[in-house]
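help with this record:
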Amino acid sequence: MAGEEIGHPALAGGPWPVIGVRVRREDRAPRAASWRPAPYAVPEDVLLPCTWPELERLAQIGTGTSRAWVFVRDLGGAEPDRRLVLCLRGAPGAVRVEGPTAAVAEALAARARAAVLRVAAVHRGAGRAEEAQAWRTRARRILKDGRAARRGRSVRTASAGLPTLGRRS
């Protein structure tokens, strides 16, 4: 999970969360991407990344705490399997996903959480229990942030950080 393109678990054939994006390619490289139908764009299953900074930002975008843009880039796999992966601004070869994220926000947050849990499973399978626990804690935080976003604002904001005993002010 070092953030290297070659290190993505999906390239080894393992299951990995994906989200649907419509992509227009030129010379097998992505030239345009959109959440909505677009001319000459075909729906593709785009992988989620496997590094924490990217997954954290995608979860923040999904829960509405960040207004950053989402990008896609070529994962760099073998020629017949030209998979794409979601990424953030600044990645080489990144193409911005156009359109409002509101329609896919909940799915984006859920898939980011699923990817975090997959990373935890990879660590657990490799015998790294402490790292697996850290990733599960991150997944729990994404779940709590999503619930707080659906309530309209976070409980911590509503209570100024004080315990509310289940009541909202």
